[in-house]
Amino acid sequence: MKTKVIIGVEPEGSEQPALRWGVSYAAASGAHLVAATAWQPDQAEVPPDVYDEMESKVRDHVERELAEAEAADGVEVPYDVVVRSGSVDDVLAAVAADVDAELIVVGHPKGSAARWTSSVLHLASHGDLPVVIAQGERPALADRPIVTAIDGARADVAVLAWAAQLAASAGSELRPAIAVPAGIESYPHPTGATTAEHQVANVEEEVASVARTDDRIPAGLSLTVLEGEPADQLGALARELDATMVVCGQGRGRRLDKIPAELIAAGGVDVAVVPAALPDAWHEAHGDRSLPGEHRHEDRWSSLLGWIEESLGWAVADRRAEAHGELRRLAAADPGTHRDLSRAEEEELLDEAEERVRRDHGDLAPGVDPDDAPRRTPPEAG
To answer: Is residue 290 part of a domain?
Structure first.
């Protein structure tokens, strides 16, 4: 079964970077394109011929791009056209759900109407599918490096797997990179290292761990360490390498949660934003291989958070070793259900717990003795 890729098309636009990228991806992967456009009428009753006219415009755009691709590569790409009323993000998400799509591709919002811009950002930040924001300034999916932005956050495993699959389709080199934000280079961490050193070490371990369990990712993959504002540094690296795109994850965490929006706003390079769990359609299309840690149940995550918050209170940092030990015990007791957590995921879990403590118990004194912190039995695995 061919996987479906949703292409957001602006019917009045002369440039169609999303279509160009989508056609290139479909030619490389064998995907079926669904070109979709959203229209928000300014009146309640709309004559049927208006929809027919809009569908005709979208079809013309698609056929023009397909003709160019076929002439260049000799590849025929199957496609459908869908025109619906509603907001861009709602329509694209609904069409994707209807056809069980694996990916949504949209054009860069630069120069577009405000509703298109806000919809693109909303899809990238909150959607359930990977979203590619195509610039159209260079050929899509050429055999150039793919910069993969990782930082130890929950989406990293999915980001690495998605980028590796894309690199394999395009014949590209995978270049994982971590950008250490300004101001934390020398900040002390409870382990004795600086926060930056601790973060880099965790991500290096994570990359090696994922490579051992996912043959899409080359063993011995080196991590590029950047210093400075993450979006600026990742964009600069992409330009230096003449990269095909930058791939990053949703919900980057406290420091890096603005990377996708900042990369999109800066322009100049295609950006892919990947959610923490890849859709079933992606797994079915690319071998249905389970990704370690990707399908961690949210109730388990919440349960662990609750235990850490209640047990450690303000002393989360002082009792990291104990917390790590309990997390490993749970994973060993039932690895099939709990899924083993990487060290980076454990750190993210503990960081999130500490943030919750500060948010929910702001009246507690930061210097509370660890022995005085409230305690309860850790949740059972399962």
So the answer is: no
Look at the block and give the residue holding tokens 């797997």.
Answer: 161
- Of 339, 324, 316, 334, the C-alpha closest to 380 is 334
Q: Is 268 left (phi over 0), alpha (psi -120 to 50) or beta?
A: left
Residue range 31-80, pLDDT digits in tens? 899 988 887 765 455 677 777 887 788 888 788 877 876 666 667 788 88
Residue 253 within any structural domain of the chain: yes
pLDDT tens-digit series, residues 270-312: 999 998 888 888 888 876 554 544 444 444 556 566 656 555 5
Residue 305 DSSP SS3: helix
Percent of the chain with pLDDT over 90: 15
Whether 14 maps to a domain, the answer reads yes
Whether residue 36 is found in the same domain as residue 114: yes
Domain holding 233, by residue range, is: 146-285
Whether this prediction's pTM lies above 0.90 is answered by no
Domain boundary among 99, 134, 169: 134
Can you tell me the distance from the alpha carbon of 370 to that of 316, in angstroms, rounded to the nearest whole number?
9
Is residue 51 within 8 Å of 98, Cβ to Cβ?
no
Q: How many domains does the chain have?
A: 3
Alpha carbons 180 and 151: distance in angstroms, whole number: 9
Number of other residues whose CB lies within 10 A of the CB of residue 287: 11
